[in-house]
Write a structure and sequence with these properties.
Helices cover 77% and strands 0% of the residues.
């Protein structure tokens, strides 16, 4: 088997470094309540930095595949950031309990319940 200049233990560390940076960034931005768009952009920049550095500085092309994957992941994160900027998701809706719902959502729930009852009544009449 040909040796490409990177041992398996070094390759595992090359995988581990961007993973740690990625998750630490996500953890810090979540604690600081930073927008998801900014978080995705920062993580994409981290992926691009590691990708370029692995491509340039790892000898004999030992991490070209990893650099390619990190570059593609950075592009994916930029796409997610754009999607989040266009149509932002609200985490607050999923985290609210039943007792904390706003008046508008209670009205929507009641309206949906009425519509379900009407549909059940129509099905009962048809049979």
């Amino acid at each position: 088997m040909a040796h490409n200049g990177v041992d398996i233990d070094q390759y595992l560390l090359l995988i581990l470094y961007p993973s740690i940076a990625f998750f630490v960034t996500g953890f810090i931005t979540k604690k600081k309540d930073v927008k998801k768009t900014i978080t995705y952009i920062i993580q994409a920049i981290i992926c691009f930095i590691f990708s370029i550095s692995y491509y340039l500085f790892v000898p004999s092309g030992g991490a070209e595949g990893l650099a390619l994957v990190l570059g593609l992941f950075g592009i994916l994160l930029l796409i997610l950031a754009r999607k989040e900027k266009i149509n932002p998701s609200t985490e607050e809706e999923g985290e609210k309990g039943e007792g904390e719902k706003g008046e508008e959502s209670k009205v929507n729930d009641e309206e949906q319940e009425r519509q379900r009852e009407m549909k059940k009544g129509e099905k009962g009449e048809n049979e």
